[in-house]
Design brief:
heterodimer; A: 103 residues; mainly alpha; elongated; B: 206 residues; alpha+beta; three-stranded antiparallel sheet; 4 helices
Chain lengths: 103, 206
């Protein structure tokens, strides 16, 4: 299980890949999911996609021939990374809530 | 009629400062000259509207498949490649009022600066190595010509045609290496400062 904190970009990319999406689709979905707050730039997106593919957290299934746009999808390992990150975020918010309630 | 194309030679160095090139292309764009091709030895500009395109230099991990995949992926987003030099890609996007940013978070900005630092370090080493070799070549050729001239009893130095070719080629490569030796350290200093500033920011925010 990963204990490393995910960046916001990586977290949202993984969340957006429940169904196969290409680069531009990921950008739009992330912007939509975050209510327009997170806007991924091209270099950030493709750097993250390359790293996530190397880690086996996402795959690029399907036909890449005939100039089809490359689509990506989350893997079971990617889902586990998202769950681990959610546990970490819950711990942060629980501890934060418990202590700030006393302020 | 005013010329619509402009060609500018550039030294094909072993390493160049990507940010300096990016700045130069954007300055040309502001004057109405749009870079359309970055070749091995020259840049080709086309007359267009001032500020029609914005240019960015991007350093990728390797100059092979990753570069090609990157170019294809960026094309989907309306970002064109106008040329490359090793792992450095020169990209442009039509100005549409939104800033042309390639990186939107600190981690990817740091990663990009680290790639630039690695590229510039290698460029500096290559420039130093080839510069030294070419300097030795030039000096050896000059010494040989002098020695041969003296043996022949001639007062002036005489070069054979082979020596002239060798001397010209070596001198050109020496000049190219000197450009790299001047350009790379400046870029390297800037990249180091940027990495330090970004990492300091990274300590407190994602």
């Amino acid at each position: 299980m990963s204990t490393t904190a995910l960046t916001e970009a990586v977290f949202y990319i993984l969340l957006s890949l429940d169904r196969p999406l290409h680069g531009y689709g990921i950008m739009q979905k992330v912007e939509h999911l975050s209510g327009g707050r997170v806007r991924l730039a091209a270099g950030t997106l493709y750097g993250a996609l390359s790293t996530l593919t190397e880690r086996g957290w996402i795959v690029a299934p399907g036909d890449e021939s005939e100039g089809h746009r490359k689509e990506y999808q989350i893997t079971p390992a990617g889902r586990e990374a998202v769950r681990a990150e959610l546990r970490r975020l819950h711990e942060l918010t629980d501890n934060g809530d418990a202590l700030t309630r006393l302020w | 009629m005013a010329r619509d194309m402009k060609f500018r030679l550039h030294p094909a160095t072993y390493g160049l400062d990507p940010e300096r090139m990016e700045k130069k292309f954007n300055e040309m764009s502001a004057q109405g000259w749009q870079l359309v091709r970055y070749g091995a030895f020259d840049c080709c500009y086309r007359r267009g509207e001032a500020g029609e395109y914005e240019y960015r230099a991007l350093v990728v991990k390797d100059a092979g498949m990753e570069k090609l995949e990157y170019i294809a992926a960026l094309a989907e987003l309306g970002i064109e490649e106008v040329g490359s030099r090793g792992e450095v890609l020169f990209l442009r996007k039509k100005a549409d009022g939104t800033p042309f940013e390639l990186f939107s978070d600190l981690d990817s900005r740091i990663a990009q600066q680290k790639k630039a630092r690695r590229y510039l370090r290698r460029g500096m080493l290559m420039s130093f190595f080839w510069g030294s070799m070419m300097l030795m070549n030039v000096l050896t050729t000059l010494m040989n010509a002098n020695v041969i001239g003296r043996y022949a009893g001639m007062a002036a130095i005489r070069f054979s045609s082979a020596q002239i070719i060798l001397l010209t080629a070596s001198s050109l490569l020496l000049l190219v290496s000197i450009v790299g030796l001047v350009d790379c350290p400046r870029g390297l200093c800037r990249a180091k400062k940027k990495i330090a500033a970004l990492e300091a920011e990274r300590v407190v925010q994602e």
